[in-house]
Write a structure and sequence with these properties.
By secondary structure, this protein is an alpha+beta fold. Helices cover about 20% and strands about 35% of the residues. Strands 4-3-2-1-5 form a five-stranded antiparallel β-sheet, with no helix packed on it.
Length: about 140
């Protein structure tokens, strides 16, 4: 039973999952179908949480609209999520930023992070493994 579920998960998983972290200000491009028409709607805000893993991974984005906080939860591997653009890197010291729900004005904006983050990239893993093989051949 489990191998069938794993195969289905791999088939539906996006190859290039978006690279962002908690605290980042992002634009989420969502595909919306209205009747026969299809359009892209952009939802921008701060990522306040991520949960799950693999195909079940999702993230919550919050932004203020007309003085009210609006939160949406997006599955990372959903076909409706076209892309996620990182506009600003925020400095978060927690895994969940639910305290931002109570903040108003400038307090609700995180400080920007200056340093570069280590991103999850499949290419770097592949190049590292090739480098080890080359070193092993040279040693022989």
């Amino acid at each position: 039973m489990k191998p069938i579920i794993q195969e289905l998960n791999k088939a539906n998983e996006k190859e290039a999952a978006p690279l962002f972290e908690i605290g980042d200000t992002v634009d989420v491009h969502v595909r919306i179908v209205e009747g026969e028409k299809e359009r892209i709607q952009i939802f921008n805000g701060t990522v306040i949480g991520r949960k799950g893993s693999g195909i079940n991974e999702s993230f919550t984005v919050r932004h203020l609209f007309a003085g009210e906080g609006v939160e949406r939860v997006f599955p990372v591997h959903s076909p409706h999520v076209e892309k996620v653009e990182v506009k600003r890197r925020g400095r978060a010291r927690r895994a969940k930023l639910y305290y931002l729900r109570d903040q108003v004005g400038k307090k609700a904006i995180l400080k920007e992070e200056n340093r570069k983050r280590v991103t999850r990239n499949l290419e770097t893993k592949a190049t590292k493994s090739k480098g080890k093989k080359k070193k092993a051949k040279k040693a022989e």
